[in-house]
């Protein structure tokens, strides 16, 4: 099944949808315009059912095949939300909303799944039911978790679920995937070090939280270099340190450190959290200060299921002739929540030589649309053949 001719015919229409979505980005759960647009299109395609309001602003469409005697139900998921970034692409269809842009290609994901839905609703060349899932708040809001908590999987009888993400630096329209842990768990932490403020000329009369904070920052790197088994992956990044003083000659009363921990194994995740807390408290106490650690667990590890990964790769090979093994990725992805509820797989489609995702000059590559649409359609037609 190479790229379907129908998607070449639909390419101008799908591209127009994508550009419209790009011009009108919406953040987290505030995807009201986007969700309404998606629901309107699904109804126009003749979907058998269109449900809104799942996971606050999520949209689900149901497309039944010519036959449903197989009893099979497969879900396809795309994310809809944008990022709080000021766009710097200079495109004629650049964001019209200051401080928001589709810097991760969710406009492309949504447009491609709409294209696949239109084709599947037209042809229905499968035996089973296709459920198309349009999710808000992937970028840190946990929209996937909220759609699952709203009972989506059981309500629509979804048995397997598949997702896709564009990937800069990979040739346009080619694919890559890996089985097992793929995207990292993403946790955040705050460390508030409280000492004793004073005059910068009399450090002996103070308990300097800046110096203590610097020791904590350095020591936290030993989680990766000396604590966790070196064959496992862990990234501890300290991303901010602020004090309650802006003066040159004042030792502040406290400093606030922020950071993130990324892991691909739940045991390592537990270990990193425990040792981070111990290190911060221990160093603070040794210097006569205190440390308050707030550790917040974010998205869990996204792990592809073996059988579904092999199937997803076979579909990709039928389109582009190959499907490479993807690298481990320390970024997070809340499709992980859906893969905790149902077997499935997540694949990367090449976005070509573009700026990286989450960059102000990033742009989804429209030429990836036919391959992406064909993969989603292939998952349904090959997964539930007539």
How would you describe this structure to a colleague?
There is one protein chain. The protein is of the alpha/beta class. The chain contains eleven helices and 16 strands. Strands 1-2-4-3-5-16-6-15 form an eight-stranded mixed β-sheet, sandwiched between helices. Strands 10-12-8-13 form a four-stranded antiparallel β-sheet. It has a two-stranded antiparallel ribbon with strand order 7-14. A hairpin with a 3-residue loop joins strand 1 (49-54) and strand 2 (58-64). Helix 1 crosses helix 11 (369-383). The longest helix has 21 residues, at 266-286. It is elongated, with a radius of gyration of 24 Å. The protein starts with a helix and ends with a helix. The model has no long low-confidence stretch (mean pLDDT 97).
Most strands sheet: 8 strands, mixed
> What is the CA-atom radius of gyration, in angstroms?
24 Å
- The succession of helices and strands, N to C, reads HHEEEHEHHEEEEEHHEEEHEEHEHEH
Number of helices: 11
Proportion of beta-strand residues: 15-25%
Structural class: alpha/beta
Residue stretches low in confidence (pLDDT < 50, at least 5 long) are none
Helix content: 25-40%
- Tell me the span between the first and last alpha carbons: 15 Å
- Output the strand order for the largest sheet: 1-2-4-3-5-16-6-15
Number of strands: 16
Q: Residue-averaged pLDDT, rounded?
A: 97
Tertiary shape? elongated
